[in-house]
Amino acid sequence: MIPPLAVTCGEPAGVGPEIAVAAWNALRGEVPFAWIGDPSHLPAGTPVAEIAAPAEAAEQAGAALPVLPHPFPAPATPGTPAPANAGAVIEVIARAVDLTRSGAAGGVVTCPISKKALIDGAGFAYPGHTEYLAALAGVDRVVMMLACETLRTVPVTIHIPLAEVPGALTAERLEETIRITHRALLSDFGITAPRIAVSGLNPHAGEGGAMGREDAEIIAPVIAGLQDEGFVLLGPLPADTMFHEAARARYDAAVAMYHDQALIPIKTIDFAGGVNVTLGLPFIRTSPDHGTAFDIAGTGKADPTSLINALKLARDMAARRAGP
Question: Model's pTM, two decimal places?
């Protein structure tokens, strides 16, 4: 059997605690998981079963939220992060990774963190979750995928200014991104012959050089080289025509050149249900595709759909890695 998933609490002043409870209530053991955090940070009245190991989660999940207690120094005030809690938020992430790498948990599902709160409270040295997880795993290069039922997108460059994208877009970076994406489609998504669409950088994929040279000089040669190895790749494609329904039927994942080029389509198609997946780690990691939402934290308005989908996807990925 696949071990239960390890779900991190994320920023306790955000929506993480309430969406974790809502996800548990919706699934009731369909996807066994253990929530790691301070039980006092959960919404009042939450039925809690404190456990000592993730393996105990499955038998408890029908009646209560299985919790691996992790004491925090300060209470949680919705919408207002406590600097004293920053260190414990980081510890919980590391604990989830340790449990997963030891085989005690089937994968890591992370609730949203506040990078500013972690920097201010604990001097967090990473741009975000993904980079910290890569450091914990000892991996130099990971890839961010956004996935929903009808689309998977991967940006080659992520959280950098648009003006810096052309300089950061190298043949090596693009090739590595495509290779990592291809491996994940095989091992984690069960696609036996992955088809990957690759966007251009410039309007009309450069229009034969009239609107930029990167498409012809960087992107096209990488595609051709990988096609020679047997990769099924389409592109470089104009980004404005590759995400409509008929176009999406031609590929299993789309590799785009920068953040908004990849994220706008999926957030338009499925704003509430998209899942963030980190590819290239030696363990499974998914997360909701939204932030801490301090403005609605504690109000009960947070939509748990993305977390529910992140749990289901992590379970499915773990099952595929485990094999028959």
Answer: 0.94
